[in-house]
Please model this.
Amino acid sequence: MLETFRDIAESTVGFNLSNVSDIVIMLMGIILILIAIISIFALGVQIILAIKYHKYNKKQNSINMTGENVARKILDDNDLAKIKVKSSGSILFGNSYSHFFKKVRLRRLTWKKSSVSSLAMASQKACLAILDKEKDPDMKTRIKLTPIIYFGPLAFIPLVIIGVLLDVLILKTQGASFTIAFSILGLLIYLISFIMSVKVLKTEVKAQNKAYEVLKNNNMATDEELVMLKKLFKLYNIEYVNNMIISLLELVYRILQIIAYVQENNASNN
Model:
């Protein structure tokens, strides 16, 4: 099994691991297996979520209001007329709220349809704006670190490449000082991004709870619709947690890759 793990690890890292310790190889194999298992589970959740979203998006909501109108009403009722409601075809943003652009973005189907799904997404994103207005501490932290949260994980590979280039162009040796240093920096940014993802989930859940409250108090949703919203939000939360776990495992795997690289590099230099 150990040799199988070694072969799999070598195929993923792209270099020989014959001098890497057995414990590192074993851990790399275990992490890859866990990533595969959780990814399969996450795919199942995504499929169920897509089915639920589609089902609720075909069901007319009780107030006959589109996602745009729902978000607009909630914002206006909370003195947030300055926040715009726009449609978005963006994969990156989708249904979202932007503090920086003062905008609630809704996917086009959510934006123009008067469905239960539209009611759910529009009310929850509008409630993120309310949390912002109320200066919720978790929301404030989320806003401050938004660039790191969304782009932190993307920094790892470029930083590693920069480290490799500096080793080749400046040190001009077989050493890997810059590669290791920039890899560690990338991992730190990645770790901060992961930690802050917890804040994102916390604010999303707070906005969901506020949406239930707003919709119920303003007679904008029936009891049946509120149950549907809870089911939909629960699936979104499970999906988010799955992604967080996968990100954490990937972080651990990247650390193991660096350890493997150092061990192999040191053995080659000796």
